[in-house]
Amino acid sequence: MEPNSAKLPIWEKIGYGLGDAASNIFFQTVNMFLLFYYTDVFGLNAKVAGTLFILARFWDALIDPLVGALADRTRSRWGSYRPYLLWMALPFGLIGYATFANPALSDTAKIAYAYVTYFLLMTAYAAINVPYSALMGVMTPSSKERTSLSSYRFVGAFGGQLLIALGVIPLVRILGHGDKALGFKVTMAIFSLLAVLLFVATFLMTKERIKPHHEKPDFRKDIGSLLKNKPWVIMVVAALLTLSGAAVRWAVTPHFFKYYGGYNDAAMHLFGREIFLDHTSLFLSVGSLSFLLGIFFTPWLVHRFGKKNSLMVLTLANAAVLLAFFFVPRGDFWTMVWVNALASLLAGPTPALVWAIYTDVADYGEWHFGRRTTGLAFAAAMFAQKFGMSIGGGLAGWLLGIYGFQADAIQSEQTLMGLRVLFSILPGVFAVANGIVLIWYPLSDAMVRKIEEELAERRAGASPDPA
């Protein structure tokens, strides 16, 4: 039975979830639409955009461990991680807006502007999202409650994803009155304000309960303990593979439906009536709803099969469906929707499982090596995720260029085949590799419970740092 101090009220879990809704306003906009924005609105060459994706996301990944180490050493009346939600909310929103502001510039100046704003956006994202992620590890000492908290987090995350998937393209069209550049600018101004408000709400509605203990800061020792932490190493490799595949697919989704599907600004039949509805938005929205539905199976899966087994099997099943997508006929839009919905349903519980496992891995590091580095553990894991995103985003841009992609033009058969590969085969291969790597993850649920109990005994006899 969980001690009362370990239980979190529902309103606090909801408040924590709002933070990932805020993060995903820009995370998903960047993943789903930034490459399209750069090539088809801002006018960048696909290879130039691909190089920018690699460099900016590598920078983002590089600074994550530094932000995590800084957050671990932060002491304030609000705790170590919560303050960053307040301090960075406004800069995050302003820089996010500037990324899509589309000023009138020369071709060379556009490249420079894209580099500056994208690098700043990744810096701001790291500065607020690394502490936000680590916050889950200090809100409660209970692994069971953290799994629940992770589920709330990803309801918020995929709620934000659904908002972006459903809203961006229609709002760009409506608010821009046919001018995509204006549409993106106004749409992102609205979403930027919403992200700021949601992060402030998370700051106000959450609390840190696990206090840091007296311990001499030593970044080298902290890094050393992480590299010796086998469960963490396994999860880092899995994260690298997961986000590499996902980033490729996200980046080329608008291109896939515009050029391969031929659905750009086309009317469709829905419930027997011909209406104007953007196919890309509908595809992404149904996928996001399926993700949300999948999240609600997380507690049952953990109870029935355990975290590791659930994550591994779901990952491999999702890989099989992604590979099968390659064989869906070109003109069969609704089959594409339902196959993707199945893939999304299978993937839905996996982020909640992954982030709950990260808290277990952080506990393992404290239990085995005697050093609690929650922020650094999360940040270094996010380094792998974002490095994977840099690989995937860069591959998408570069391979589009290699396949001969030209914006707003009729594409060659080679380019169309390339879009199919980027949208299904390559993500599927990354997912298969990810599922295989998870076989070596060593922490069973029984071991996690033992670690939790022994850490509770240690903490009961330790003196916390003054806040």
From TrEMBL:
Q: What is this protein called?
A: MFS transporter
Q: Which InterPro entries match?
A: MFS_2, MFS_trans_sf, Na/Gal_symport
- Gene3D superfamilies with a match to the protein in the record: MFS general substrate transporter like domains
What's the family? Answer: Belongs to the sodium:galactoside symporter (TC 2.A.2) family.
Specify whether Transmembrane helix is a keyword of the entry.
yes
The residues that cross the membrane are 21-38, 84-105, 111-132, 152-176, 182-206, 232-252, 282-302, 309-327, 333-358, 378-401, 421-441
Organism equals: Luteolibacter soli
Any idea which UniProt keywords this protein has?
Answer: Membrane, Transmembrane, Transmembrane helix
